[in-house]
Design a protein that fits this description.
Elements: H1 21-75, H2 80-123, E1 129-137, E2 140-147, H3 150-161, E3 173-178, E4 193-200, H4 202-210
Length: 211
Amino acid sequence: MSQQINLISPLLLKKRYALGLREMAIGFGLVLAGALAWAAFLHVGAGRLDDQAAQQEALQAAAQQELDQLNAAAARPVSALLTERVEATRVQVAQREALLEAIGGTLETTATGFAPRLRALAHSHTEGVWLNGFTLAPGVVALQGSALNAGLLTTYLDRLGKQAPFSGLQFSGMTAGAATVAGEGAPSLPAHIDFALHAGSSDNRRARDGQ
């Protein structure tokens, strides 16, 4: 009977490590690839930040330039000629405003008696009576015209006195007479009389006639 005895100690056997050279090389490659990718990402981000910083610097430079120009313009002395022109323009505007205000007040005070009297003259039309001219002013009324006869003139005055703008008006002066014969070549008119009526103070009438 035979028996084999192992005289080799287990401690003398060659051990195999879990991580060999191949595994270590693969791991190192992965780490290196990750580091390169991270470095590329940081480089791209740094480039964007540089571009943004350059844009901000350009905007700041432009703003500073505009500010310098405004400060230089503000430091310049005021032009005397420009100041005179502005003052002259202001005076002209003030004068025009005053003139417009005066004209508006005059029209407002005179229109209340002027337009109604014109309408009253139109409503008092009488066949055979016509006006050759008239003057309407505050406190003064003057009518110049012609009529075929005195009766038609009386009818015209009655109609005129019934109009509200002429109600109670008393004509202080009146002239009437046969019309003069026209010269040769003038248009022929039927026989008629010419009249002139005046109402209002003579002073006001003279002032209006002078104007």
